[in-house]
């Protein structure tokens, strides 16, 4: 027996003394506020205090805390957020919330020793906790401002939009109460694990699998047990992925069987002992895949090309023949892992004949439809009730545990739980597409762009996933937000035996922008023009046509570039002065722009929002736009509040749930604020109209919702509605409104001409870096980011998106490289830590778009797109090094510095 | 139910080790990181409850670090400047969480080529103390680690302490780590240097490099070349060929071998500048 003292409670632990403290906290004592992100001490999400010192609970055997004081997030301030947690809320320092308990505990340890720390002490104290959402800036600010003043954060009625409303779901995240995918474990649940392929390409056969399982006391399930269609895919037309492979695997980590049984038994299994005969086959990489005669991965795609996207306008060939100056280049990017700190996890159970699945997701209705198909069940018999989702960034758009849990629970009738390990998450989940791209840019003597060609091969991996979206989006966006009259672009999604490449913040556009924006710099230099002026000269303007021929209005790129002009001029001088003192450190500055269409590309993309008032006077908002940390819960409530004319805190949010909340579509493509925002605004306005009609009052009237009553007043007029007197609708409301919005788009023709998006967002970033000429190391000192949001719904959340996008862009630029089989953890796969982040200065630009709600445009993906090319341009400016491969690891930068020096010598 | 021993007497630990097939454990930061399992496997013999293994003391002409001393304890200890490099390495082993749990002895016995604790201890000519039921022996650290994950510790031995002679705990020191990110990074290369001066001349230079050979190594030829040079020009006497000749780097996911050979001489020079008190010149 081990005597424990957890959060002041004396406990006697009788189990295995060798277990991880994190496992005991979560499973024996249900203290699920301690999160598990890696089980290897790499992410710090499980940080707890032992005798006041921060440790990773995942690295601490329970025997070591015998007779010591253990404190978890739950014990910190059991009666609601304390000053530190309040500071996190004020500063918007929690986004998805999965790292928040670890961050808070790490900061708590610091503050007990050092009540007034400086910035560097805070950075050191937090350096052991990874955050993938925030870019750390707001977390540092919060810890520095624990004693800060409490401002009024609940804005008055009609003033919600534009206010720094605190995240509505923030307190739960910061107190460890939020239940993520792994945090809900029903009693008696079967624990599920997948047996996965160790090979990228192989045939396989089971031998005596049932006997093996029976001997170990677990159940086993294979493709033969699938009652429905064992073929799923996020885009139905391209569905090609078996949930459980049938005789043939096409990638490392592909699931071939499931085992289910008691948690301790299943957790302890060595799955490599499963009796499977593997017959390894030659795997195909991107070069092989393009070779004639190679055996295709899918019979239906004989040349391994999943799809090619083309945009063609004017006569690019002629433009290059007549060009005054032209540049060309190539770029190669690698697999990038989403590295959300929450590995995929969830629970399934039956309620009557309805299968319920609660898992981390970005797309509940898509999950339902594909799970129903897979299990051969009607859609209404599958109910998806998403868990809080600890980061997604595109990686949780595809299903993970959902069909696996569904199968086990459907076949056994018992609840089931599945929690991916970090390695499993990295192996089995989708990645950003590696790209091999070439491009050319042409300009006339005045510096106006006259033509562009772009060609890219995107390694889409073993299955389709979002490959088609990438192939279509890239040629539409590869021009950047510039007017280019002659344009020819093609992107191909090509199958390989690599990891499935899917959706990742930007759908291929960040890769294309790396090449396009570095070429912009090269062309400006060739023209002898200032790099900012060159971009301003070519920036799209209202009334001009895109490369798709779409005539745009409310174009914000010019305003974004203008907003950076002052810092550009100043930084240019500072850099020149710094580099004047010769040394091994050189500074440089770089710019890049972005544009990004919000929502599906030329396809229907509706969202439906519902709100209702109960007879008791409870105002419910069915908020189906998955909040994966970006803040949809708060943003939708802010828009709804102003649309209805009430305050934000009057809403009770009903989460996404396919049984009771309408389909708001998936959280992807920077669409929720625009599309669901428009739907919720219209629903709110409709409800307002109903109320005003009830009392026969005009638009200017004031609505107050109280217990069992609504009061409407205008001037001296005042009418009271007793809600009990109104008829009760089927959904349980006496007043209800629902609105559906689908952004108007036009299909693209064979030349890629049309109007693919109703709303675009724009941005530009200025990176300032310091390069060590001897070591090739790059330090990003500052990023100034100007983004046109149309209308800022919540400045704190918007800044959070920008800072987080920059962190991911910086990671992609400098350190992130997923190598299958080699980097399946968070110490070999590197994402930025608190010490890698530059100062970020956000400029929120508002060029309202009449199609967006109250003028709003999307932001989520835009924030990442310019970062990598801006950093690369700054590196080149600093030292001449021209990178052609990402990430710009120190060895690659040093090699490029040497190559540039050699070129300069021979020139 | 697993068996977990956590004795408070070294004698008991040694007897257990002699009589049962146990896995030695202290901070567990490497043991748990190496498995996805919810519990450690096999019988565990935990050394973190044995008081003498957790102290740092100066006695009998040497500094003695108990093998289960945590990185945080090293950072917090009052030590002469010759140990600044060890403290700097301690501050860069993982985050605070890992520094609070991970131990010096564990770092050495785990014998990773990239172990950050090893180069500073090599530059201090540290010895390790090994005890078993049959006695005690001392082995120079340079002879203790023989390859990646390989040491000369016998199965019945516990590393009980790391010793640094007073005569080697002299001078100033610096540690630099090269990695692709600021924190939580496995070194591409690490360098520890210690300079003992005689007036404005280098009386003794001790330099060691980690992550660039199967076992971290001293730079003997460079040390010889630095002996007697003026301290304010010390970095100018580093011959790149001497540095490279001592190394045998591999290419891996962190960097190419060519880059390690290119970068280490610069890192050595920077560390020398730092150790000679001219760190401002690096900013």
From TrEMBL, chain A:
<keyword id="KW-0479">Metal-binding</keyword>
<dbReference type="InterPro" id="IPR037165">
    <property type="entry name" value="AldOxase/xan_DH_Mopterin-bd_sf"/>
</dbReference>
<dbReference type="Pfam" id="PF01315">
    <property type="entry name" value="Ald_Xan_dh_C"/>
</dbReference>
<feature type="domain" description="2Fe-2S ferredoxin-type">
    <location>
        <begin position="1"/>
        <end position="76"/>
    </location>
</feature>
<dbReference type="Pfam" id="PF00111">
    <property type="entry name" value="Fer2"/>
</dbReference>
<dbReference type="InterPro" id="IPR001041">
    <property type="entry name" value="2Fe-2S_ferredoxin-type"/>
</dbReference>
<keyword id="KW-0408">Iron</keyword>
<dbReference type="GO" id="GO:0033727">
    <property type="term" value="F:aldehyde dehydrogenase (FAD-independent) activity"/>
</dbReference>
<dbReference type="InterPro" id="IPR006058">
    <property type="entry name" value="2Fe2S_fd_BS"/>
</dbReference>
<dbReference type="InterPro" id="IPR036884">
    <property type="entry name" value="2Fe-2S-bd_dom_sf"/>
</dbReference>
<protein>
    <submittedName>
        <fullName>Aldehyde oxidoreductase</fullName>
        <ecNumber>1.2.99.7</ecNumber>
    </submittedName>
</protein>
<dbReference type="InterPro" id="IPR008274">
    <property type="entry name" value="AldOxase/xan_DH_MoCoBD1"/>
</dbReference>
<comment type="similarity">
    <text>Belongs to the xanthine dehydrogenase family.</text>
</comment>
<dbReference type="InterPro" id="IPR002888">
    <property type="entry name" value="2Fe-2S-bd"/>
</dbReference>
<dbReference type="Pfam" id="PF02738">
    <property type="entry name" value="MoCoBD_1"/>
</dbReference>
<dbReference type="Pfam" id="PF01799">
    <property type="entry name" value="Fer2_2"/>
</dbReference>
<dbReference type="InterPro" id="IPR016208">
    <property type="entry name" value="Ald_Oxase/xanthine_DH-like"/>
</dbReference>
<dbReference type="Pfam" id="PF20256">
    <property type="entry name" value="MoCoBD_2"/>
</dbReference>
<keyword id="KW-0560">Oxidoreductase</keyword>
<dbReference type="InterPro" id="IPR012675">
    <property type="entry name" value="Beta-grasp_dom_sf"/>
</dbReference>
<dbReference type="InterPro" id="IPR046867">
    <property type="entry name" value="AldOxase/xan_DH_MoCoBD2"/>
</dbReference>
<dbReference type="InterPro" id="IPR000674">
    <property type="entry name" value="Ald_Oxase/Xan_DH_a/b"/>
</dbReference>
Automatic annotation (TrEMBL), chain B:
<dbReference type="GO" id="GO:0050138">
    <property type="term" value="F:nicotinate dehydrogenase activity"/>
</dbReference>
<dbReference type="InterPro" id="IPR016166">
    <property type="entry name" value="FAD-bd_PCMH"/>
</dbReference>
<dbReference type="InterPro" id="IPR036683">
    <property type="entry name" value="CO_DH_flav_C_dom_sf"/>
</dbReference>
<dbReference type="InterPro" id="IPR002346">
    <property type="entry name" value="Mopterin_DH_FAD-bd"/>
</dbReference>
<dbReference type="Pfam" id="PF03450">
    <property type="entry name" value="CO_deh_flav_C"/>
</dbReference>
<keyword id="KW-0560">Oxidoreductase</keyword>
<keyword id="KW-0274">FAD</keyword>
<protein>
    <submittedName>
        <fullName>Nicotinate dehydrogenase FAD-subunit</fullName>
        <ecNumber>1.17.1.5</ecNumber>
    </submittedName>
</protein>
<dbReference type="InterPro" id="IPR051312">
    <property type="entry name" value="Diverse_Substr_Oxidored"/>
</dbReference>
<dbReference type="Pfam" id="PF00941">
    <property type="entry name" value="FAD_binding_5"/>
</dbReference>
<dbReference type="InterPro" id="IPR016169">
    <property type="entry name" value="FAD-bd_PCMH_sub2"/>
</dbReference>
<dbReference type="GO" id="GO:0071949">
    <property type="term" value="F:FAD binding"/>
</dbReference>
<feature type="domain" description="FAD-binding PCMH-type">
    <location>
        <begin position="1"/>
        <end position="169"/>
    </location>
</feature>
<keyword id="KW-0285">Flavoprotein</keyword>
<dbReference type="InterPro" id="IPR005107">
    <property type="entry name" value="CO_DH_flav_C"/>
</dbReference>
<dbReference type="InterPro" id="IPR036318">
    <property type="entry name" value="FAD-bd_PCMH-like_sf"/>
</dbReference>
